[in-house]
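Known limitations

Files may contain more than one protein. Parsers should not assume a single record per file. Below, a two-record file is shown to illustrate correct handling: read the sequence, read the token line, then continue until end of file.
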Amino acid sequence: MVAQNCEQRSSAGDAPWASAAFEGGEDIAEARGLARSFLGDVRTVHGHPVSGRVLGTVQLVVSELVTNARKYAPGPCLLTLKVEDGAVEVSVWDSETAMPSVQAPDATRIGQHGLEIVMAVSRSFSVHREPVGKRITAAVALAEDPVGDVVGRRG
């Protein structure tokens, strides 16, 4: 269950954003639901095109980052979504001070592919220490190129 639904959306003239805190063993589906609702508003209220592919990619990134925060960090995590520079920034803060390690690609490894996947589908990826814990941010481009690939995807 959402520990504290801090969800706030901007008016039609402002850059859209939403945020929610998650605590306990709640279903990650709630975080994906927030992303779905947010991107619906980005499309209908703010007039940005949001394809099914972008919607799915943002939900995947949200799911992976919130799952990692709930799995490896004590206490709540905070998910923030915002549109900036033609991309949806997915940011997850948690209280764990240890920085995540991204494994080298290995098709024979079972599991531990989450951050590898997030980095592959995101325009940018960063991890920053905070006064308490850390914040992981991935940006997913809103626009797609004519063949359907996400613009700015790292190869």
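...continuing to the second record:
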Amino acid sequence: MAGMTNFFNLSSTATRFRFIAVLEAFTWLGLLIGMAFKYIPADGNEIGVKIFGPIHGGVFVVYLGIAVLTAVKLKWDIKATLLALVAAFPPFGTVIFEIWAARTGRLAELSTGRPVADAKVLS
């Protein structure tokens, strides 16, 4: 349960970024499920798309803003910043980027402790 408490702690730039990145992935999932119910059956129901479309759109825009603010505050290079922005387009890309950013030392206290300079050599 301690992990869940940490997840909802939005007191730092890195934790806010992680929360929004995961939230964006969940809204993608909702939209994909809504699209499946709309297009797979012959007489599809589009209520899922009507609900999750605007929610995902709003969270998508918030993610882009948070990504830029996080990049500025944590002094990301242009490569990391562009990857964060591009990660919003494919489904679940934000979570993949967040894991990469944490592993390479770009998410401050959420990172593994390996310095960013060492991480750049490996990436």
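Parsers that stop after the first record will miss the second one. For reference, the second record is described as follows. The longest helix spans residues 13-39.
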